[in-house]
Design a protein that fits this description.
This protein is mostly helical and 240 residues long. Helices cover 79% and strands 0% of the residues. The chain has one domain: Four Helix Bundle (Hemerythrin (Met), subunit A), CATH 1.20.120.1760.
């Protein structure tokens, strides 16, 4: 099967996904598009690796953290592969999109719990931080869902809502569209401050490398939360 890159890779995505993980995932898709591997199978493998990353991080050791970093990044690349593979085959389904997005949220919650468990022996305050950071991320996604329901309802808008996925819709809500994606420091800054899931996992990997995941949770609370809720409030005001 001959693939057209722009039809497979999302026009709008997170910073790390756009520059690193997305191109890697595309190479994987090119290698497996003609096999019997399904997008849902890729999703299941991705989530299994995410759970393995949580278990590795729960050990609270440098070796465990290094294993968690590798597993987490491979999991994220495969998380992009499933969507790209579905678009390449034009085989996306509402059920597959639901499984992907729902297990994303559950997987991130389990990951935070595993990291907190591994860190609690030396930093007891990490549990409240982990719960608070998770609450911020989940509330952000609830806001995204509400905004998605208020999206343009013309045919093109409906197509985008069906095919783009949560992160792309979220970035569109934040004001980053295809034209802004093409360049300009303001668009890249918006993407960085939006802390999409790939950017969160990259930042978390750095924190695990230095055995300070508590700093990651603080960054989500003090850095990402104002960006999330400020943008959501701005968009909601425009809809008023």
């Amino acid at each position: 099967m001959t693939l057209v890159r722009r039809d497979v890779i999302k026009a709008v995505d997170g910073l790390f996904a756009t520059t690193v993980a997305g191109p890697i995932a595309y190479r994987v898709v090119c290698a497996i598009v003609d096999t019997s591997i399904t997008p849902n199978q890729v999703t299941l493998v991705s989530r299994a690796l995410l759970l393995a990353a949580a278990l590795a991080a729960s050990r609270g050791t440098l070796a465990g953290n290094l294993a968690a970093i590798v597993l987490l990044q491979v999991s994220f690349v495969l998380d992009m592969v499933d969507g790209q593979l579905a678009r390449a085959r034009r085989a996306g389904s509402p059920f597959g999109a639901f499984v992907d997005e729902f297990t994303d949220r559950v997987g991130e919650a389990v990951l935070y719990a595993g990291i907190a468990f591994g860190t609690a022996a030396t930093r007891a305050s990490v549990w409240p931080l982990a719960f608070a950071a998770l609450a911020v991320v989940l509330l952000r996604h609830v806001g995204d869902l509400v905004l998605a329901a208020r999206f343009a309802v013309d045919a093109e808008g409906e197509r985008r809502l069906h095919s783009d996925g949560w992160i792309t819709r979220s970035l569109r809500a934040a004001g980053v569209d295809e034209s802004a994606q093409q360049g300009g420091w303001a668009a890249w800054l918006k993407k960085a401050l939006w802390f999409s899931i790939g950017d969160r996992y990259l930042l978390l990997s750095v924190a695990l490398l230095f055995q300070r995941p508590d700093l990651y949770f603080w960054i989500i609370l003090l850095g990402a939360a104002p960006s999330y809720f400020g943008r959501l409030a701005q968009k909601a005001w425009r809809l008023h």
